[in-house]
Amino acid sequence: MTTTTPAISTPAAPATDASALTGKRRIAFASFVDENYLPGFLVLLRSLALSNPDVCEDFLVLHDDLRPASVAAIRALHPRVQFRRVNADHYDSYVKGDQDNYLVRKAYFILDVFRIRDYDTVITLDTDMVVLGPVDELLALRHGLAAVPQFFYGDKTRMLNSGLLVIQKEYLTDEFCAKVDAIGRSGKYELDKHDQGILNALLDGDFVDLDPKYNFVKRRLSGDLPVPEDTAVLHFTGRHKPWQGGEAGYGQAQERWAEFEMTDAELHAAFLEAGEAHHDLLVHFGTPHVERTGDIGTARKVALAHIGAGDYQSAVEILERVHLPVDEAWPHEVYGHALMSVSRYEEARAQLHLASAAPNRAATAFSRLAQIAWVHGDDDQARDYAMSGLTVDPTHRASRIWHQRTTGIPAQPAGRAEDQLAHVAFYMDRQGNAGDKLLPESVRLAFGKDTSSRRWHSVHAHRLFDEAALERVNARKGLVIGGGGLFIPDTMPNGNSAWQWNVPDELMSRIDVPVAIYAVGFNAFDGQSYRANRFRESLRLLVERSSFFGLRNHGSIEKVRAMLPSHLHDKVRFQPCPTTVTRQLVEGWQDPATREDTILLNAAYDRAGLRFGHDYGYFLAQMAKAVKDLGALAEVKCAAHSLDDEKLAFDLRREHGVSLPVIPMYDFDNDEIRDLYARTKLVIGMRGHAGMIPFGCGTPIISLISHPKMAYFLRDIDRPEWGVSVHDRNLAALLVERSRDLLADHDRTVADVHGRQQELWKTTEANAADLRTILGG
């Protein structure tokens, strides 16, 4: 292997790689570990978990040899650890001195870390460090190579201390490694004397300064001085390490290190008292604590962490391991939530009734009981439970939603069953997401002008598909399934299918009318997963049973085909979302003669951690700058598809003093949604349908990409430049530049939108011909 070939690398990301599509930063900690320094590294891991319980990034352990027992000890302290062997051979041409010396071997690591290719930010930590405070600022860094500067006595040369580096992707390149190699071969720097010598020679002082608190060296505490309270990372430089007995004159520093010298059981107990915790760490430390102690409170916390991550079966299993006293309401409520999420409804009811006896958990328990009743088609009982929840707490939002969903449902004239198509979709509530509200009608328009109950029999995807529902569907002339990203595991979880349609396999297999899956999307977020086996089995049966299986973008097609046996791949075809061809579907559509001088801005906040990672503060600051500059082009307004979307306007005003008018689209009917998007000049949207709906109305768009589906759509219309990642380093500048370009010749841009739309319409028309044959006209 040549010196310019990365020792640590991964292949280029495929087209469906979520991080590559969203631009979400991949962050990792990294340390070089050997057997001699293993005690220090174990303390480092414990200190990181206890001082930053809400932080859980990948941790790369670079080593040239570790015993199995050492590997097991490390794995016990971090749920996302990866072991990577370094290759010192490519340093033979320029390393001098004793190659068994730890400083030399650590230098291999310092140089080898630049050969990592699968992360955007790498934070190196020495194994003689202990983390005492928050490191959020390091995670938020986005540019350059950052380190704490150091100065040797009598030498004013600006140099970095290499114990802690924050390295961005522009340094994790073959080009930079080649420069490192060139300086190394010069023989000028002996790594066993100054392990940072090569980096200092290469950077020549050009690095980003970190506050000394992030690499506070022990020698500054000579004379047994106390460790400053704001120290985030304490570095035990020198030959005498804490696990070897330490060094005289540094007693208070040694005491801080000793705080983290503990057993795994002691770590688990301490972590569970540490405050707001990352769900991966909570599961990793809480699970063995529950197994050892049977502690109910910890079991509840771990179960909630599993629920938050969409792993409902694991939530059930952790609570099954402990005895829940009758008078412990909160664990019963969480257990009921987990059970209903895997479709163990009767057991869930029992647990939720126990929880409803406690005033502080009753409203939530009653709302979940209302949900179970509604899922089973019992609106009256659901309304009664919801009212019980409101009686306990009149402000309880979930109870109010279930009460509204089951109150004042208008009766609609029904057509003859033999003339109708059954339609499985997510039918949005009155103040629900504007995009999801429009979707079912858009799907129906693709099958004809009449979208009413005369021609359509509605089947809510989230209601249990039981024998009665099967009988009603089989009485129709066909079944259409479509209206959103139904392939997502957590909007309304169930154990029957593990996606949004709550259908048991046995009942799906007994549908005896033609089945058409129409413009469904694979909607998993970057970092989100399905219950793989249950979803795959349900998906395979659905594809086998269908006469038409159309997905709304090629990214979804690739994802779904990867889960199917090869003989079913050809059944999966492209069917664009009907909202993208709205101008073709709405009878009598007229493009606006004039447009309002506005730019509509939309942001989404569901699953915010998956969307933004550590970058929300950066995103908000960039949006504040963009809004100010966009204001010179047109008036900027916040288009809120849901109530939560208004957070953008609130946060911009509170954090940056930027005010935006808010348009409550969640209160709009379908015609109002289409009309608003048709009359504006440009839409900058984060939600999928804040891009697809205006595009379908003929309006130019720019997508704020925080979910792969945005990139999928732009790739399908061959306009990837109409998207900008929410993590982009130049987010504000790019948004303003691209907005200016699209608005400069607005007629030309609109014509381009129409041309792109026409290509989607051709596919839709071709599919329509097949569907007419399948569904009998």
Automatic annotation (TrEMBL):
Q: Which domain of life is it from?
A: Bacteria
Q: Where is the signal peptide?
A: none
Residue ranges of coiled coil: none
Using the record's annotation, list all stretches that form the Polysaccharide pyruvyl transferase domain. 478-705
**Could you tell me which InterPro entries the record lists for this protein?**
Glyco_trans_8, GNT1/Glycosyltrans_8, Nucleotide-diphossugar_trans, Polysacch_pyruvyl_Trfase, TPR-like_helical_dom_sf
- PANTHER family assigned: GLYCOGENIN SUBFAMILY MEMBER
Descriptive protein name: Glycosyltransferase
Native organism: Streptomyces vulcanius
